[in-house]
Amino acid sequence: MNITLWNTLLKTPLLKNSETNKVQQWIQAGQETSLSIAALAQLQGIFIQLSQYRMETLANLTQLSPLSKDYFGNNDLAFTWKKIHSIYQCSKEELADALYINEVVVNMWDRSINDREKYTFTETFERFIGRTLDVSSTVLLEKQIEEPVVQKEEKEVEENVVELVEIEKVEVVETVSQEKDFTFLEQLSVLQTSSVQSVVHAEEFTELQHYMHVERSIQEHFIRALEEAESKNGAHLIMLCGSVGDGKSHLISYVHEIRPELLEQVYVHNDSTESHNPSEDEIETLEKVLAPFEGRGAGRDKVVLAINLGVLHNFYAKHRHTTQFPKTIHAIEASRVFEVDKDFDNSTEDVTLLNFAGLQPYEISDKGATSRFFEAIIKKIVAPTEENPFYRAWQKDRERDVWTPAHLNYSLLQEETMPSAIVQVLVEAMMKEKLFLSTRALYNVIYDMIVPLDNTTFHPDHMLPSLLFSRPERSELMHALHTIDPVARRAEVLDSLLREFILTNDVTTMIQQHLTGNAHYLTIWENTDGDVESYSKLLIRHYYILNHAALNERFYQFLQTLFSYYTETNDAYEKLFHMMMQAIERWIGSPKERYIYIDAIGESNYQLAIPFQANARPGREFGQARGQTEINRLKPEVELGLDVNGKTIYVTIDYALFELLCNVANGYRPTRQDYTEALQFVEFYSDIIRYTDKSDEMLIVHIPTKQMVRMKKPFFGGGLKKYEVESIE
């Protein structure tokens, strides 16, 4: 531990008193192995303050405008640090350190840190402190702390005792959370990942987690696998595979709560939270865990392994050609688990592999997309029952005449159609930006769209529809939602709505007709003259949420294509091929039907064009969900192939490219930015040119006059003429 560095931090005005006391305790202990969850929670606060200070310093150095403080209002600063790196050009090393620190403190509830990682984390954090304080240390150290260091030292013993008591409270607060009379805002705060009462705490299954639990299909498969393992005498391995935040730890905790007998004879290992000792890496730990199952060591031979696919792949790469773990390697190969399109239940005789990877939290059908899982969580939060701690706290606040914008937003979310409508918008943002939303990330989003930074003023910007689209700094998903903000788009129905709003003499009646009859919500519309722009934005956003399908024809066309691709149930995928052929002809341009230019039209007056002919080939995942009426194991993109002169060329089409190609097929001329952003299609077009036979025929086009000359091989190839040349219309 670099005591000098921590002492330097103590002399700055950046720390709160409780954080100062904690740092003093570490210095006294002289070791970094005391990194408990409570300690990490304190370090998270220090990290946020140092990050904001570092941003301000970099802004001064680069003479650029500083980021809004809103970027530091969320405890997950991954997005913020990527923004800092992009704008102020901090080093890649600094970005890597910041992202590592953030990953540890954000996921502190889902993992425990072994001694080896504690040293790594402390070393990284100290490097981060040193870099931050070194940038402008003279300015920083000239500032005075409000409370002199001497006074702090005199009160050190007393405050340390208080701090220790507070730490003790932090570690037990989850177990008594249902007994305390929380205010509504205090209860909502458990939705934040960083909360000491976080609903996604992985160490235990609390009353709150039990209430919030929503069953998923993989739960049934997991319980069945445990029952089968219990009935067998021999060794058995159950692997829960996936990625961070997809619910593996939660599922184990839930089964331990409701069916503890199934885990009594089972060794449970979570690769993200456990290690045998600080001197071994995760693969070495995994080898020890699997040894009894493979018959090579003492211990329980029935094993439940919650493992991220990256770790599993590293294990497989190390042992695929050895003979040490034959049963495990065989099961991995038989399951084809590293292929996202494979089903989540793949079993051999003594191994059951349940794969979360590729399992989306939403479903698509021929009617569109939704997420029963997300909708169930939102409905749990707003359910008007005594079992619901959020509703109880909201009701008690109302009885105490406590009413804030957050309370009003909660009442909006309680409306019958709102949870489903919100989910439609969330799924749209996820699919368009190809994001995976974990359960804990969803909780954060729900908190962010209910609680504004200024929770005292009933302003249009503080209402749920505005918060949903206008807080891009809060997280990746909130940034994705900002990109689909309906305020930035044009639609005739929205223009008509705005005209009606501007011309009406009875705004509240209009809001009742188009949006809601919520009496508290209507009161904020009683005087719109002072800020017509903010009210207009709120109107558009709220209307968009409630009328999502009607305002997203192109997006629902993409969903139809996606569903057709995976299930082979309608002709939407075939229509994509015809649209693609039109878009190819118009991508750079075409002088004549069924011809395409080789290069973009430049300064030259002449351009070469070649015949374009190709046959459609389905993508490699086409029809894999044939016969299903609803799918949730998919990627939000389709693959399409073209057979060009015997060579099949594939292109992957996500929503952004789908929308661009639809526009091009309808006459839109791509811009330089379009070409830059659609690099995959640019390469696809280049491959078409590369594999098209250009030896038989070619057009030479005089661009100013549009006159064309055709060059083609003569009918008698053995003659004296190399090519025939003719002028064509």
Please give a structural write-up.
It is a single chain. The protein is α+β, with helices and mostly antiparallel strands. Helices cover 50% and strands 11% of the residues. It contains 32 helices and 16 strands. The strands form 4 sheets. The protein has a 5-stranded mixed sheet with strand order 2-3-1-5-4, with helices on both faces. Strands 8-9-14-15-16 form a 5-stranded antiparallel sheet. A 3-stranded antiparallel sheet has the order 7-6-11, sandwiched between helices. Strand 14 and strand 15 (707-712) form a beta hairpin. Helix 3 (37-62) runs antiparallel to helix 5 and helix 5 crosses helix 6 (115-135). It is globular, with a radius of gyration of 30 Å. The termini are far apart. This is DNA phosphorothioation-dependent restriction protein DptF. It comes from Savagea faecisuis. InterPro entries: Dnd_assoc_3.
Report the structural category. Answer: alpha+beta
Radius of gyration, Cα only, in angstroms?
30 Å
Adjacency order of strands in the biggest sheet: 2-3-1-5-4
What ranges have pLDDT less than 50 throughout 5 or more consecutive residues? 135-179
**Helix count from the secondary structure assignment:** 32
Major sheet characteristics = 5 strands, mixed
Helix fraction?
40-55%
Give the tally of β-strands: 16
* Oligomer kind: single chain
What do the pLDDT scores average to? 82
- Strand residue percentage: 5-15%
Give the overall shape, derived from the CA principal axes: globular
Distance between the termini: 82 Å
